[in-house]
Amino acid sequence: MAVMASAAAGPRQDHLWLWNRRWDLMFISLSVLMVGIPYLTYLGLLSIETSLAPFAARLGTTVGDLSRNVINGIVALSVGGPHMYATFSRTAMDTDFARRNPWFLRASLLIPVIVVTLAVVNLPLLLTVFFFWASIHVLHQIVYITELYNQRQPKTLSLISRAADYGVILTCLYPLAAWKISTGDFKIGLNDLSAVVGSIVPLGPWMVWAASAAFGLALLVWLGKTVMEARQGTIHWPKTIFIGLTVVASFFVPALGNLDTAFQGMNLWHSFQYLALTWMINHLRWQRGELERSPFVKRMSTDGSARSYYVFNIFLTIADGALAVVVFFVMRYVFGTTFDFAFDRAYYIAILSFLWIHYYHDHFLFTQPQVIRQSAPAAAVPATAAA
Predict the structure, then answer these.
(1) CB environment 279-310: b (16+ within 10 A), e (fewer)
(2) CA–CA distance from 180 to each of 34, 183, 203, 239 (Å)?
(3) Closest C-alpha among 4, 24, 1 to residue 242
(4) What are the backbone angles phi and psi of residue 300, rounded to the nearest 5°?
(5) Dist. CA 64–CA 216, nearest whole Å
(6) What share of the chain is helix, strand, coil (3-state, %, to 5)?
(7) Among 27, 70, 315, 330, which residue's Cβ finds the most Cβ atoms within 10 Å?
(8) Per-residue pLDDT tens for 350-375?
(9) CA nearest 362: which of 150, 122, 141?
């Protein structure tokens, strides 16, 4: 986060970038390289399986599951958890937002009730809903960033142009995912989600054909639109680069073997983007004087506050982990459930309760790209912001 502040230093010379070229490439587009880190790390740990096997055996697990869970934990603590709590700096912690949307925030309290109920009654269904909603959320964030770029466009875009962008974004993740589901090979950790989907709709090649046809048509329209804009000299290069890299990464990730670790790569990139983007938006709002009635959020949005902002969200992540421990002990020793039952339910109850609230809030925030329309002063973020 400190690097984020220093990368944003200096005047924004090109109005098409969200902040400037260096910042956008570092935190929005070229950060796509992060997608491969979890899976490559997983393969690296498997390559030293002989050395890790005794330790994994003492824990009663395999090297593969140990590696997968270690990677999940690192991603969750470093960016996954912090990014979902960062949302609340724009909603529940923002006094003006809370005053304008009281019932929206109160409705959030229903989400933990739903999560607890599904965790106890039907955990596979909970996970199926989670992964489907997670994919929608990730794609919605990509659409939101696209719309933020559109706010930097000097001319009004046509409905066809926007539809072409949206179409390729919303379909790129599903062709290979549909193939995995149709062959019964869509497994996240120890959970077979193909079986859950198969209990709702019949599995078969039709899923692959439908998803592939939708993506193929959307891709052709987007490519045609992009070529036409390039010839007319109206192409928005920052947005086009971002969409192109997103489509490539999202299309191929479901083809990887261990989907749990593969999707952690998407989660790593998504969360890294989100943290940088949320702090930048809050910083712009601070510069415009919009946080005067929210002093705590204001302190975390000023020059030099990026590190404090990140550490605060790390603290909330650790606190949520402590909540999971409490839920585990209650389920294990008060209600007398088995270790595995209590461990899985405690983890998902603590994590998904806040994660789903984060999704819910973001579906509202992501409809407001105009938040970036009014630019900050030219030298808004000095190099000393990294301090």
Answers:
(1) bbbbbbbbbeebbeebeebbebbbbebbbebb
(2) 23, 5, 10, 30
(3) 24
(4) -90, 5
(5) 35
(6) 75, 0, 20
(7) 27
(8) 999 999 999 999 999 999 998 987 54
(9) 141
